[in-house]
Design brief:
The chain has seven helices and six strands. The protein has helices at residues 4-16, 38-52, 56-67, 81-88, 93-106, 126-139, 158-174, and strands at 21-28, 71-78, 110-117, 143-151, 155-156, 186-190. Helix 6 (126-139) links the parallel strand 3 and strand 4. Helix 2 runs parallel beside helix 5 (93-106) and helix 4 packs across helix 6 (126-139). The longest helix has 17 residues, at 158-174. It is globular, with a radius of gyration of 19 Å.
């Protein structure tokens, strides 16, 4: 039997202590969307996100109503886009625009994964993505980006550290008319946690937890 005290205590926490669920984040692997043609890859990415996360926001709203606790954000995290760029080549900003289009279609607050993992050095697609980050963040609203530049095991990629300092500044300059929001959607990591769900650094690695 539900205790009346517990009900009132929950209501008090929601009203007085701002109790909420900060986010629900859905991880989506994009590896099966890879294509040597970047435009085809972008189409596959858009279609997969819109299919898999079609009811993410709706389901979150249903949970809010059922339990009476607000869910502040509904989010998606995806495979680091540098991997996709390494396969397709081309301008990585196209991926950012495809993700933005998907975010608007499904109604989520953010999509994370415009990311590169360069603690062991630069692989194909990494530098291209990193150099595109300021433009990608300036041209989108819902996209979050991250770069992991070091780890305890691999050490620190000092070339990446230098470049990211420049990119943070460029992102601020390109979004100066929007409260310099660019760097607010960008994280530079050391020891980034795998399958990180937390914006702005969200990205997805393991297939075992993906859809």
């Amino acid at each position: 039997m539900i205790d009346t005290y517990d009900i009132l205590e929950t209501i008090r926490m929601i009203q007085d202590e701002c109790l909420d669920i900060r986010t629900t984040t859905m991880g989506i692997s994009l590896l099966d969307c890879a294509d040597t043609n970047i435009d085809k890859a972008c189409d596959k990415i858009y279609n997969k996100i819109c299919t898999k996360a079609e009811k993410l926001v709706e389901t979150g709203e249903q949970i809010e109503k059922e339990y009476g606790i607000p869910i502040i954000n509904k989010r998606v995290s995806v495979t680091p886009i540098a991997i996709m760029a390494g396969i397709s080549g081309g301008d990585p900003v196209k991926y950012a625009l495809a993700l933005e289009k998907a975010a608007r279609t499904i109604g989520v607050n953010f999509i994370g994964g415009y990311s590169a993992l360069v603690q062991k050095g630069f692989a194909a697609g990494d530098l291209e993505l990193i150099n595109s980050i300021p433009q990608a963040l300036a041209e989108t609203e819902h996209i979050c980006s991250s770069v992991n530049v070091g780890s305890t095991k691999a050490g620190i990629n000092m070339d990446a550290v230098k470049i990211m300092g420049q990119k943070v500044k460029e992102a601020a300059e390109l979004t100066k008319d929007n409260n310099c929001i660019g760097p607010g959607k960008l994280v530079v990591f050391c020891n980034a946690p795998e399958d990180n769900p937390f914006m702005a650094g969200a990205f997805l690695v393991f297939l075992s937890l993906t859809v």
